[in-house]
Amino acid sequence: MQNARNAHRYAQLKQGEAAASTQSWSDGVGLTHRSIQALMKIGVNRHWQSGQVILSRGQSLGAALLLIEGRLRVSVITPEGEEQLLHWMLPGEISGLSSVFADSTYPADLVAAVPSQVLQIERTKLMALVRQDGELAIDLIRILGLRVNQMFDTLATQGMPTLEKRVWATLERIARLNSVQVPEGVQVSVSQGDLAQAAMASRQRVNQQLRRFQDQGLIRLGYRSIVLLQPSMR
Known about the structure:
Radius of gyration: 19 Å
CATH superfamily of the largest domain: Jelly Rolls
Mean pLDDT: 82
Strand content: 15-25%
Number of domains: 2
Structural class: alpha+beta
Distance between the termini: 11 Å
Shape: elongated
Helix content: 40-55%
CATH topology of the largest domain: Jelly Rolls
Number of helices: 8
């Protein structure tokens, strides 16, 4: 009986998320191998240590940034002075395209979450290559389209009526981006503090909600990780 109730609850949460967000925007967020090789011929490698600020919101940007190794944190500061985590950049992802193409400032803060290697691609060289390489241009357009979907997905999550659905939708959004398969389900590498920022709620309230999910058999909490359990495991 308890397993049936848990499965029903899981289905309700899934339905709530599906109704408010787009199709999995994060499938294929990285550039193709061909595009990466083309950009590496014109870019310059830079290395960043954990915690170093690579870009600040409102900063002028004369280059696109391709992550080669490591992980980058993309966030903004709300009017209340709290950090809201928007996204983690993983190897193969590129940032700053909209700012480079539109010749505008960077819209967020970009920080190295771990020691990272970033390829810096100067604007004039990138524009010249885009004009010459149609396949690369199409790949960059694909990335920009996925970023638009990401924005709507984030807005949809923020607009959910309850903390329960907001935390669950945020977990699944992060899982699509930064997770690994484990025997019990999907393991998401995220701290509760980062999850709280992404869900726009206090860490205490998110912790309480995660404990309820765990009691219901939906997740298993670990050190800086959360396993979303498969329905069949409950």
